[in-house]
Write a structure and sequence with these properties.
globular; DUF2505; alpha+beta; Alpha-D-Glucose-1,6-Bisphosphate, Chain A, domain 4; 7 strands; 4 helices; DUF2505 domain-containing protein
Length: 162
Amino acid sequence: MAQASKQFVCNYDAPLDDVMAMLLDEGFRNKVCEAQGLLSHNVSITKEGDTTLVAIDKQQPMAGLPSVATKFLGARTDVRQRETWTGTDMTLTLEIPGKPGGGTGNVTVVSKDGKTVETVEINVEVSVPLVGGKVAGIIIDQFVAAMEAEYEVGKSWLAGER
């Protein structure tokens, strides 16, 4: 089994409460999906006691990726992203239905000097002999591109651009 890991840090010039409200806002999450150029997406956010569940189902194009990726992942890939938030901590699961890989991760959001730091750690595992490491790296790259889109949309959102 091949693995790849990555850490991504977002530094927001906004209070913790504003960032958390944004991250748990369905309108924000839809805007992030639109910024990613997805083929389709569905966002659902539900609250169960002290826990908030975020479910994002998306279909993303794989055009422009190396042939090894499209061979195993296809020309378009469905991704099920599940987030379980308790306070400012989150556990993440990425599923790629019918494909030989997926991921898990953790997110922490903390206040620092009136600003907010969101730290995302993701680990991807792919069970494909020989090229699994390359495919895992490509999945990580796709996730980082999604996080970069979220960060850019987030900065605009917090500045009042909705």
